[in-house]
């Protein structure tokens, strides 16, 4: 195994637990850096809001209002209705923004906390509205943060996750890997339901919220991505193997 600056993850097996429709981008990024991705989704996504429900939530918004999107999963479900929505659009990070037809604000510190930190305060008595699109089990960070800034906030739950159980052979392959990466706390919870607290030697998460949820689930996190994006996740992973 020859590790180079261009391929610092050469030969290392890395488990990806994201839903299958979201796993390929991360797998490609890992392969470019020399890793051997092991794609084994531990959750799958299920829609909970119909397109009509999402349209009904967004259509009343005006140009002074906001649609705030918490994840790429939520973005894929509101992208169509945004075509007829006059409101401005905010995204928690670059990955979410790429899944949207347009954005007016993207958090530089790619997290819900980062977006709240740069979000404008509502005009006093201006009746400003914001609709937050996120998962059923998403944290209330955006809703609470925007309300504290004076916005009248409605939440649209676009989807939820449910666990997927690998076969016995697949489970063995996961435990023999060099690392596992989590991009949501739900993935970590599904891992614990399968394996308890046994993990590969390296566990890396995409951001502080995922780290908190992973640790609450009972797992020890090796590193948290400083930049809460897929490239940031890979950089954190590379740092772990350089030590």
Summarize it:
With 243 residues, this protein is an alpha/beta fold. It folds into 2 domains: 13-42 and 164-242, Rossmann fold (3-Layer(aba) Sandwich); 47-160, Rossmann fold, CATH 3.40.50.10090. Helices cover 37% and strands 21% of the residues.
C-alpha end-to-end distance: 17 Å
Would you state the CATH class of the largest domain?
A: Alpha Beta
CATH architecture of the largest domain: 3-Layer(aba) Sandwich
Strand order of the largest sheet: 3-8-7-4-5-6
Fraction of residues in helix: 25-40%
Decide which structural class fits the backbone: alpha/beta
Pfam families: HEM4 (PF02602)
Domain Tetrapyrrole biosynthesis uroporphyrinogen III synthase: 25-234
GO molecular function, one term: uroporphyrinogen-III synthase activity
Pathway: Porphyrin-containing compound metabolism; protoporphyrin-IX biosynthesis; coproporphyrinogen-III from 5-aminolevulinate: step 3/4
What's the topology here?
Elements: E1 13-16, H1 20-32, E2 36-39, E3 43-47, H2 51-58, E4 66-69, H3 72-78, E5 88-91, H4 94-98, E6 105-106, H5 112-118, E7 129-135, H6 141-148, E8 152-163, H7 168-175, E9 179-182, H8 185-195, E10 202-205, H9 208-217, E11 223-224, H10 230-242
Parallel strand pairs: 1-2, 1-9, 4-5, 4-7, 5-6, 7-8, 9-10, 10-11
Antiparallel strand pairs: 3-8
Helix pairs in contact: 5-6, 8-9
């Amino acid at each position: 195994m020859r590790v180079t600056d261009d391929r610092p993850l050469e030969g290392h097996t890395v488990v990806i637990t994201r839903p299958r429709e979201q796993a390929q981008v991360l797998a490609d990024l890992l392969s470019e850096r020399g890793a051997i991705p092991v794609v084994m989704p531990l959750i799958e996504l299920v829609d909970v809001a119909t397109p009509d429900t999402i349209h009904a939530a967004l259509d009343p918004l005006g140009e002074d209002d906001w649609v705030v999107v918490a994840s790429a999963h939520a973005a894929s479900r509101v992208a169509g209705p945004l075509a007829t929505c006059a409101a401005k659009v905010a995204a928690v990070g670059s990955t979410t923004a790429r899944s949207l037809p347009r954005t007016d604000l993207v958090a530089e510190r790619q997290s819900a906390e980062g977006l709240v930190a740069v979000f404008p305060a509502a005009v006093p008595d201006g009746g400003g509205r914001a609709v937050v699109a996120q998962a059923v089990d998403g944290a209330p960070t955006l809703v609470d943060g925007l309300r504290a800034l004076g916005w009248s906030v409605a939440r649209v739950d676009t989807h939820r996750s449910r666990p997927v159980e690998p076969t016995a052979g697949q489970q063995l392959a996961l435990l023999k890997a060099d690392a596992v990466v989590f991009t949501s706390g739900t993935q970590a919870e599904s891992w614990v339901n399968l394996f308890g607290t046994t993990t590969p030697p390296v566990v890396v998460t995409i951001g502080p919220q995922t780290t908190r949820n992973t640790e609450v689930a009972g797992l020890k996190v090796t590193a948290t991505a400083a930049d809460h994006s897929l490239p940031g996740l890979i950089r954190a992973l590379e740092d772990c193997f350089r030590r």
